[in-house]
Design a protein that fits this description.
InterPro entries: Fatty_acid_desaturase-2, Ferritin-like_SF, RNR-like
Structural class: mainly alpha
Family: Belongs to the fatty acid desaturase type 2 family.
Organism: Amycolatopsis thermoflava
CATH architecture: Orthogonal Bundle
CATH superfamily: Ribonucleotide Reductase, subunit A
GO molecular function, one term: metal ion binding
Radius of gyration: 19 Å
Cofactor: Fe(2+)
Number of helices: 12
Strand content: under 5%
Shape: globular
Oligomer: single chain
Length: 282
Amino acid sequence: MPSFEASVLPAGDMATAVGRYFAGAAHARTWHVETAMDWAAADAGRLTEGQRSAVEFITIIEDHLPGYFALYTENFPVDASVGPGLYVHNRELYHFTVRWAAEEDSHARALARYQCASGLRDEEAVRQALAGPGQGRFELPFDHPVQFFAYALVQEKATQIYYQQLRAVAGDPVLGEVLTHLSRDEARHFTFMADVVAAYLRVHGDAVLDPIRAVIAEFRMPLAGTLRGYWRWALRIADTARYDHTDAYEHLIKVLNRAVDARSDRHGELVAFIGSCRTLGA
């Protein structure tokens, strides 16, 4: 297998994807945690127990941002630990990573603010609930650069879908507004990840198919292996609004199919594999 450095996109291709992201973000609806919602109107009393539990769950997931950010800075470092060629690629990616981190951190702040403003929990209780999970290390067992983007593609789209479905049943309109802003951001993050995965397919062809397959074969949403009681909690919130990361697989298949003009047998086998995982997870 080629080295990690030999497998990354050319810096120019990464710069193109990052540039497209910022061009799209420039036209996105800007929002700020402090002013986007009428926090005084937030009322957790309008939520079902399942919806309250879902808010607590997604707050923990979003608040683990330091761990997610560290994953990218550790695997795509911008320091003297890498050679000039890889540094240039990583520096282009870093432009996106810091913007993505700022937006995801706003998600964590908005959800924590909602808990406090709505009376779900007071500020100290929210801080304490987030401290334990937040100190856990987030790791992914990847050795090919495309895997970090294929994983995030699925995770961002699955999160977007869940926020949309939770918004549809949310009893409190303020929570609905929060989820609207979050789902729009996640949609843009998905678009960037899809753009990068497509670029890998165009540049490296079938060489990235097995690494992508490995991502799907072992896929777990963030904190699934570290958050105590994750699976019981995930099942509980799925009773409130559908929570199934394999809902994102059809979007990955579309990216795979659109990225290349001539599809090899191996390409078709990967698409079939992903489709079978979606069927089993439905």
